[in-house]
Amino acid sequence: MANYHPTPEMLTDFSAGNLQLSHALCVSVHTQHCNECRINLQRLNSIATTLFDELEPASLPERLKDSVFSQLDNEYVEDQLPVKINTTSIPKALQQFVADSYESLSWKKVSSAIQSAHLCTDVNGSKVSLMRIKAGGKIPMHTHTGKEYTLLLEGSFSDENGLYNEGDFLVRDERHKHRPVVSKDRGCVCLAVTDAPIKLTGVFTRLINPLLRRGHFSY
Amino acid sequence: MVNTRLNLNKERNTRLKGLMARIAEHRDKEAFEEFFNHFAPLLRSYSLAREPGATLLADELAQEVLIKVWNKAHTYKPELAAVTTWVFTLARNSRIDHLRRSGRFSTEIDPTDLFENIEDEGPDPFQMAQRQRIEKRVHDGLRQLPIEQSQILAKVYLEGKSHQEAANELELPLGTVKSRVRLALQKLELFLKR
Fold this sequence. Notes:
Chain A has five helices and twelve strands. Chain A is an alpha+beta fold.
């Protein structure tokens, strides 16, 4: 059961189709863990429906009907692939990037405890990646130079503000400075969307900031 | 007054469901024509709300959605959503596809799976009965919202503005826009209580 959810505004933008797709990806994966947000989204659709229903109908060019009717007898090819039996625990929205297991991705080492795998880049430059952190792994004290959206896929971690479990949806920005620690019994996997690189704030680890920046822009 | 409208609305939904069944089962073009006459003007209007003046784009969206309705009629599940809700989601997805084609949305992320897993999930019978009650409540509640709240919802849902864009356009602080949306959602009693 997730305890940290997207804001109502974010759900509203999602249901309206306004959310940039990397953020929509996080919301969608969250709803697979969170029945409550899924129901809320279905309910938000009824706002959309009512507003849509009450639009002032626009005039129709005559040719539109002809054009549509002339295409009805075209053979229709189902654009969907045959339904795969879902044998994995990968959320449906992520399966376009992760075929069968997180193992199969090309992981890059970030530190002794952390690995990351790049999935894609959004139009505004946001990086979408998976992070894998060892059991008991500590992430050095850091802050964010832009917004970071994190969706916890497996395992749990905690920081100064709380304990996070599977399905939890977190947004961090430059106001947050934190030092997350992964629980000791198992490692964790997160989906992360970062608008800009994180910035380490510890005295010693600050030295590797240029490397992190390079990592962010190297794809 | 409210009651007549409610009944009209219910009647129309029953009528539309009937048309959908005839389209899906009998490939009935007469039923489809009635469906077309009802939805094509709304779909054009939906597209024009986001991009005023772009009439060709509006035609394209209406055409794309209506042909999808014809081809995918068998996938519509009347127990899950009102016909208009289903058509809205097709229109929204078509808008997203357009945004991807024009480079405003990422082409590296396929949106299909992001939305399907939410809308296709079958609710239990209790939730289904509740869903119809909620559709009514929202329908009536929207009319009673103060204009400054419903105006923002229309910007978000029809004009496709983010909260930030709505704030810029109305020359309001982002916080004000957000709190108006939250107030509206509260009044509609839309969200499950946490």
